[in-house]
Write a structure and sequence with these properties.
2 copies of one chain form a homodimer. Chain A has 122 residues and is an alpha+beta fold. Chain A has 2 helices and 6 strands, in the order βαββββαβ. Chain A is 24% helix and 45% strand. A 6-stranded antiparallel sheet of chain A has the order 2-3-4-5-1-6, covered by helices on one side.
């Protein structure tokens, strides 16, 4: 059996809420972490919620990355889905950068293999 | 404690590969299922991979939805993240529609609560 993809969910708690409110701040931190981790951004889409909070979706050549921020809870959720051999390592590097740059004091991570495919179909 | 969000991921196996190759086909099926499930699309972003396969990201007022298709494996991955009270029910309805419309013979679902926040911070 083969796994098509690797996915990581990260919960970033006790972040600096000042960094979570504005779409331009969140976009820059998110893009920098993804690109510095050698993941490849093909398309991006961000949205500013009112009164605060940001959602961002990136289409990667490796699959996708999502971010949501809740400044009122000092909380950020991040998902990264990759389907190349180095995706796991790159995703974990990106999560660590985001932890540092949002000033998260606690982080909780879940990891998954996505798409279990018989080898005969490869 | 409160959960900020509810996330569901679905593995759709043994789909009709003819429905998975082209970005316009995948986009229409995905948007229809999301909108008919009463989720609210704010922004959309899709990408056609070569030689085949599609990635789509939707920013929802409830959070986000992602899709990836692998026609060569007859496999589709879907993630839906919501943060309103009816999000769980709406997400499950959308997944069932996608199962039917992609002709999936097998489906595997996992559900998660995202962002565990102390009530005092509400």
């Amino acid at each position: 059996m083969l796994n098509v993809g690797f996915q990581i969910y990260a919960e970033l708690y006790d972040c600096n809420p000042k960094k979570l409110s504005n779409v331009e701040d969140v976009r820059q931190i998110f893009l920098d972490a993804i690109i510095e981790s050698k993941l490849t951004v093909l398309k991006e889409c961000f949205h500013q919620f009112n009164p605060h909070g940001v959602t961002g979706n990136l289409i990667l050549s490796e699959s996708h990355a999502n971010i949501h921020t809740w400044p009122e809870h000092s909380y950020v959720s991040v998902d990264i889905f990759t389907c190349d051999g180095e995706g796991e390592e790159k995703s974990k590097k990106a999560i660590q950068m985001l932890k540092e740059r949002f000033g998260a004091k606690r982080i909780h991570i879940k990891e998954f293999h996505r798409g279990i495919i018989p080898k005969a179909k490869e």
